[in-house]
Amino acid sequence: MKESILIVEDEKDIVKMLDYNLKKEGFKTSAVYDGEDALDTANKECPDLIVLDLMLPGMDGLEVCKALKSASKTAAIPIIMLTAKGQETDKIVGLELGADDYMTKPFSPRELIARIKAVIRRGKDKDKPLEVVRIGGLKIDFLKISVTVKDKPVELTAKEFELLKTLIKAKGRVLSRDYLLDNIWGFDNAVEIQTRTVDVHIRTLRQKLKSEAKRIVTVKNYGYRFEYED
Ligand code: CA
């Protein structure tokens, strides 16, 4: 079955370029040029993924994202946001509103298609229970709480393991330092523990993961995500 992508962008040239490249990859596409139509079409067609530009006439991309994610019918549709350089804050807000990924313009269609495929695949894996995960040279056994890199055991502290598990469970979504802090360290020690704690543990975790350290990607001024692709 062909997966359907809804393109939301008012710049016709970009729509044309995306439409052409997505069809060539075997996707079914539809396109709308403003936010109101995006909500209508998303409701009617329930696409497998939405490519949503931030800068739209009338209702902007962030409002569209918020509306889609707060309506039960459309909440599960993954969204990749398109942002322009310098829209750093909007990008962060978008991720907090539930966008699954973002691309900064100008971008290559090839890169966007790789992201689209990754996001769709992640969605399909979502319901599987987490037992043993193999990603590149990394193997994590969530039941035995053990990690190996290229078949060599890696000794992680409880917090490092929790950190790795939380990042993997997010299926590539970016997690903020505050989120990681609240979920792994909890509120109990809020006074002493600061977001820097997260960075310190990320650093030791990366050192221990050696050749697989590259999978823990820093998202500047925000947090971290886990990279599945090689
Ligand atoms: Ca635009």
Number of strands: 12
In terms of DSSP E residues, the strand content is 15-25%
Question: Numbering strands along the chain, what is their spatial order in the largest sheet?
Answer: 2-1-3-4-5
Q: How helix-rich are the residues, as a percent range?
A: 40-55%
**How many whole angstroms does the radius of gyration measure?**
19 Å
Helices and strands: which structural class?
A: alpha/beta
Treating each run of at least 4 consecutive H or I residues as one helix, how many helices? 8
Separation of the first and last Cα atoms: 27 Å
Structural shape? globular
Order of helices and strands: EHEHEHEHEHEEEEHEHHEE
- Ligand inventory: calcium ion
Give the overall pLDDT as a whole number.
89
**How is the main sheet built?**
5 strands, parallel
Poorly predicted runs of 5 or more residues: none
What features would you describe in this structure?
The protein has helices spanning about 10-25, 35-45, 60-70, 90-95, 110-125, 160-170, 175-185, 195-210; strands spanning about 5-10, 30, 50-55, 80-85, 100-105, 130-135, 140, 145-150, 150-155, 175, 215-220, 225. It has about 230 residues and is of the alpha/beta class. The strands form three sheets. A five-stranded parallel β-sheet has the order 2-1-3-4-5, with helices on both faces. α2 runs parallel beside α3 (about 60-70) and α7 crosses α8. The protein is globular and about 50 Å long. Bound molecules: calcium ion (CA). The site of calcium ion has 6 residues, from loops.
